[in-house]
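The instructor's notes for this session suggest beginning with a concrete chain rather than abstract definitions. Hand out the sequence below and ask the class to guess, before any prediction is shown, which regions might be ordered.
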Amino acid sequence: MPLPTLNRFARVLREDLEAARRRDPAARSNLEVALGYPGVHAVWAYRLTHRMWREPALRLPARLLSQATRAATGIEIHPAAVLGRRLFIDHGMGVVIGETAVVGDDVVLFHGATLGGKAMRTGKRHPTLGDGVVVGTGAKILGPVWIGDGAQIGANAVVLKDVPPGSVAVGVPAEIRRRPAVSLPESEVDDPAIYI
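After discussion, reveal the predicted structure:
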């Protein structure tokens, strides 16, 4: 990689570390996050495999590396998926991001989240998440649906339809609700990942 490209790549990796530090109160240092956070490791491996995927001759090695990363982290991210900046995958085990998924900037995915398809066909079959989306533990977002900026998907929700920006989707199948008005101090507001 040329030096300017390496510098950009290093900057993105630092952003990933900082995103984990900002979003996880248990993160004590960049070193701890870099060495001990499988969500960060999976995102870093994805960033490499995605670059490889753009070269047709490197698609098989990209796929194999993505599967090795899955074995090591428990997180499966297809190299063709498009992930934005500062994605944070908390805990991570069981997260699946499908081939045609698109994820915006500043998204948080909790363990067990799936960005999957509903049909076995070619073309766009996975969700598109806007910026600032939070996807709760065990949530399943299935099909080529659109999740608007700032939306929150509750734990274990099954989302089969579009979710407007700033909304909360909860239940099976998910129902759309307005985000609760916050009048309590920030420390007393539940994490959006646990809305049920």
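Then share the key points. The mean pLDDT is 90. The chain has one domain: 3-194.
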